[in-house]
Amino acid sequence: MDPLHSPSTPGTGAARPEILDALRQRVARLPAGLRDHVFRVEAEARRLAEIYGLDPERLLLAVLGHDLYRAHGPKQLLSMAAVLIGPPDPVEEAEPILLHGPLGALAMQVQFGIDDAEALDAARYHTTGRPGMTLLEKALFLADKIEPEKVNGVPELQEVRRLAEHDPDEAILRYLDYQVRRSTELGWLLHPHLVAARNELLRRQRQHTP
Question: In angstroms, what is the C-alpha Rg of the chain?
């Protein structure tokens, strides 16, 4: 049975360890490369949670749910999104991989009974970012981008990793700048959330520049 059509389990509260275990079992069934990526992100998220003073269990809900649909193909993502979350916007229609975060967040709610809005938003927007991200959202966004396999051999991401240890906003801005350059070189579309998140961070940076 597809996770989005499975019976939901009750709330987060006292059941959180069981929910984390259930998510971990679901991740263990992902393709090996993706499964290993998620567990590397978990290690990064635990490290950032300690640095940022976050509740690691809340962050892990997002970590374990963020890529549940990353292995699905474009047609499958589009058909599922059309039924479950409404018509994709033009950028998502052209780049269906952008839908895996929103679908993962929905699965977290429907199958696993997760009602932590911040953890759900972290999973939902982990690919593009968005304006007004909370620190927990920023932690997942960064952990996903700076896990060792992604950083290896990419100087820009090594700098993002360094910045993430003391300035998450600057780290995210540096990553978004890198993504804009890379998307331009490869002819990729930029999601409006990414553009808006970068604009917000740039405005904030300029306000604090003498």
Answer: 17
Q: What is the mean pLDDT of residues 6-34?
A: 75
For 118, residues 6+ apart whose C-beta sits below 8 A from its C-beta are 58, 134, 136, 137
Q: Are 64 and 42 in contact (CB under 8 A)?
A: yes
CA distance 119 to 139: 11
Round to whole Å and give the CA distance between 82 and 167.
Answer: 38
Structure tokens at 128: 């593009």
Contacts of 204 (CB under 8 A, 6+ apart): 169
Residues ≥6 apart with Cβ < 8 Å to 98: 91, 92, 127, 128, 191
pTM of the model: 0.91
> Residue 54 CB: number of other CB atoms within 10 A?
20
Q: Three-state DSSP class for 111?
A: coil
